[in-house]
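Quick one, tokens below:
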């Protein structure tokens, strides 16, 4: 089977790996928390992103890579839903709005995984947040309390969400709860999941009695 090739920004990429390598290199070189332009990124969003291609929206080619601290400073929901991670934003012309976007659209999760991610983000909004007296549970860790993340000890989040997905229908999964990236005042699948949905009710109830602890990003990843 021949490798898929791409022609973007007048450049031929012989494989998906080659394109990913170029994106990764460019992302490392770009400034954080400042607007920049990039024609390759624009073409990736406009020509390869399924949700963009299915709409009449187009990226202007202006981008920002926002640090977690900048997301928090701007009061963005992503700072709560995806603590610690950077977010790539682009300006969409017709909508005249900045939205988060992936520059690896060929890696987009399945509809089921997107719903699971939405449930995780939705439940994260009601979980405790660290304060200055909190510390990472890993002995000797000196990481600042500001970077601590909620870690499920028992049961794991995977165990909880696997059980919760029993309450989600195949239609809801296929349609991602009616998700539309360009609906005003929405940012992810999480915004389309009803707050009283049985899957969320189950997760809310289970989080009243589960065992958990604070972990810094490094030690949290090690425990996942």
């Amino acid at each position: 089977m021949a490798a898929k090739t791409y022609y973007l920004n007048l450049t031929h990429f012989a494989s998906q790996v080659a394109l990913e390598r170029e994106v990764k290199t460019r992302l490392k070189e770009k400034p954080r928390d400042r607007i920049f332009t990039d024609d390759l990124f624009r073409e990736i969003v406009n020509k390869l992103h399924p949700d963009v291609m299915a709409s009449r929206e187009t990226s202007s080619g202006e981008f920002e890579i926002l640090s977690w601290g900048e997301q928090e400073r701007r009061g963005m929901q992503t700072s709560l839903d995806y603590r610690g991670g950077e977010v790539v934003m682009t300006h969409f012309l017709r909508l005249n709005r900045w939205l988060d976007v992936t520059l690896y659209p060929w890696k987009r999760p399945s509809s089921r995984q997107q719903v699971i991610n939405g449930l995780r983000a939705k439940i994260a909004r009601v979980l405790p947040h660290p304060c200055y007296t909190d510390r990472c549970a890993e002995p000797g860790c000196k990481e600042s309390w500001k970077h601590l993340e909620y870690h499920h000890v028992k049961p794991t989040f995977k165990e909880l969400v696997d059980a919760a997905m029993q309450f989600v229908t195949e239609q809801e999964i296929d349609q991602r709860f009616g998700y539309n990236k360009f609906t005003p005042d929405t940012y992810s699948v999480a915004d389309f999941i009803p707050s009283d949905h049985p899957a969320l009710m189950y997760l809310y109830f289970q989080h009243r009695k589960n065992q958990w602890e604070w972990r810094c990003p490094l030690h949290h990843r090690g425990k996942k």
